[in-house]
Amino acid sequence: MWRRLLLERERWPLWLPVFLGLGIAVYFALPVEPVSWLGAAFLAATVAAALLARRWNGAFLVWVPLTFVALGFAAAQFRSTWVAAPVLERPSGKVSIQGLVDEVEPLAEGGQRVTLVRPRVALDGPVPTKLRLRLKQDLPLPVGAEIRLDAMLVPPPQPMAPGAFDFARHAWFMGLGAVGTGLSTPVIVTPPPDSPGLGRLRQHVLERVTGQLPGATGGVAAALVTGETSAIPRPVLDAYRDSGLAHLLSISGLHMSLLAGMAFFMLRGGLALVPAVALRHPIKKWAAGLALVATFFYMLLAGAPVPAQRAFLMTGIVLLAVMLDRSALSMRLVAWAAILVLLAAPDALIGPSFQMSFAAVLALIASYEKLSSPMAAWRAAHQEWHHRLALYMVGLVLSSLVAGSATALYGAYHFNRFALWSVLANMAAVPLTGVLVMPSAMLSLLLMPFGLEGLALVPMGWGVAAINWVAAQVASLPGASLLLPPLPLWGLVLFTLGGLWLALWQGTWRLWGLAGMAAGLAGFLTVTPPDVLVDGRGYAFAVRMKDGSLLVNRGGRLLRDTWERRAGPLSAEAWPKAATSADQRLACAPGFCLWRDDGRRVAYVQKDEVLADACASADWVIAAVPVRDKCRGRARVVDRFDLWRQGAHALWLSSGRVESVAAWQGDRPWSHHPAKRRKKHEEISPNISNETNNGDS
């Protein structure tokens, strides 16, 4: 083992971002928020120990990794404290809001979503410094303008099931303290300043693209140019997801490398046309520098999401290497990009964008390291055009297989779906993106200041429409999207560590990583879906039917989609409001339902007057009303107060296991308990809250 480590000494630095990510993961996995000084103390202690032990041979193999673990933990804790902002405690009711427009996003189903900063609103409690509203009107609201309207606000919603997407945590790191719905037409109180800003430029580009290319074509084109997907209709988004083309809608390595490559070769070719410049100046370095500026602008225009940050960093290192006459080490390039992204935004580690983006790039580079020599030899021996075409097709298929295989598990973990025909879809869509769509997008940005962007947007629309058609056709194939059970966290960790071992080492011992990946995949076999689900209000309720499907009484599309992904396919049967289900397991009467399974009985109660009957006839009582001491005896109770304090619940009746959102989240700044949240925000920013409230009053 030690001899093998020494033989691959040059690969040791590649593990530094892994240890950095491990420290970040430890912070987010804690069940309680650590004391504020813990991260800094841990980092200082490991740095001191590393300095003291530097003279002992091999000591750095222990203390350098521990130092990076401590650095990751400290970075995550610092980031969580740095972004802390007031969060709304309870629904506001109808209030009057005045604030600055920070972002405007058109919605495919009509209306728009507006983000306001520094809002002024009279609230009993902390006033958010940033909030997001959904408006029914399609009004020209310029970024930077101050508007006033009536709205209803609610705190950022908690997960709809234990283990589901935690929007409250996502909002915490965005600084978003409330969401809501506009009740009146917004009025512009103060127009935006005359000086242009990046937000106004992004809005202007978005409007020009969607205005020239309406409908789904415009929505997808806007996503490719600005990174904004809100204008894409839901069926089109579903088709991209089910066909394995969703990565095209996220500005990442493919888009950034295409733009950088086009900018570099166009600029270098243009400069080469001027002999006086080409013969006297390093036009290759100039082109690389200007291409770097272009990719940086593209990243900012896209809102700098994590995949775009990673792609810009990697592309930037390559262009910088060109300017410095140095060779870029691809795997080290990925490591440096990961370190920079994780230090700048540690919370990105737990999101699908970071995981899928880096998994794909790491797998592609590791594969290229092994296959580049035989492919180069084959290319040298086969010079005909049809040989080059065959090599291109093989490379395209191989790239799709490698990237798809590397990201499939992360997609399954976060979205519980697997796109079976993704290779077929990517073989058709990726060449279209590289040859027609992205060059047209770049040209449209160059022509936009002159009002001539239509010359490029029209052919871009043709390419986007073709990709939309490919997505729809592949998504309609049998078994295109397979629904998978939720993978346990330990399965994701084992698969990731196994994949890293396989990709980062070069000797035959790297194959040990396959065992870790297989153990991670085995996590799917250990999952038992819950028998009963109930939301945090006691409003929506679901039970397992005899055929394994989930019968849901009510709830919106988002709740049903979340429960389907967490607990299995939804039943096509309608909820029996005053009848019995087809499998005779569920019987309902006004305000009361009783579900039976293998001798176990669960009562769902919505009215006080039927509570006594439910307690007498059931082993479990799920009540949308307070129970207190009204249900004494053997029945286990989850009542309105439990749901209010702990959020949505999941029940496994055979084992008696109960999970709640609050228990899953732990005691963190973004977690569920309203009373705890109030105390936290009073500690975090009493001055902000007091000053804002005084100003409002």
Structure description:
The protein is an alpha+beta fold and 697 residues long. It folds into 5 domains: 2-82; 94-195, OB fold (Dihydrolipoamide Acetyltransferase, E2P); 204-354 and 428-481, no CATH class; 489-526; 532-653, no CATH class. It contains 25 helices and 18 strands. The chain has a 5-stranded mixed barrel with strand order 1-2-3-5-4. Strands 11-10-9-17-18 form a 5-stranded antiparallel β-sheet. Strands 12-13-14-15-16 form a 5-stranded mixed β-sheet. Helix 12 packs across helix 13 and helix 14 packs parallel to helix 18. The longest helix has 31 residues, at 385-415. It is globular, with a radius of gyration of 28 Å. The N and C termini lie far apart (69 Å).
Q: How far do the termini sit from each other?
A: 69 Å
Broad structural category: alpha+beta
Beta fraction: 5-15%
User: Would you identify the regions where 5 or more consecutive residues have pLDDT less than 50?
Assistant: 677-697
Overall pLDDT confidence: 87
Shape: globular
Strand neighbour order, sheet with most strands: 1-2-3-5-4
Q: How many individual domains? A: 5
Number of helices: 25
Q: Summarize the biggest pleated sheet.
A: 5 strands, mixed, barrel
Which value, in Å, is the CA radius of gyration? 28 Å
Helix content: 40-55%
The number of strands is 18
Looking at this protein, list some descriptive labels:
697 residues; alpha+beta; OB fold (Dihydrolipoamide Acetyltransferase, E2P); 5 domains; five-stranded mixed barrel; five-stranded antiparallel beta sheet; 52% helix; globular; disordered C terminus
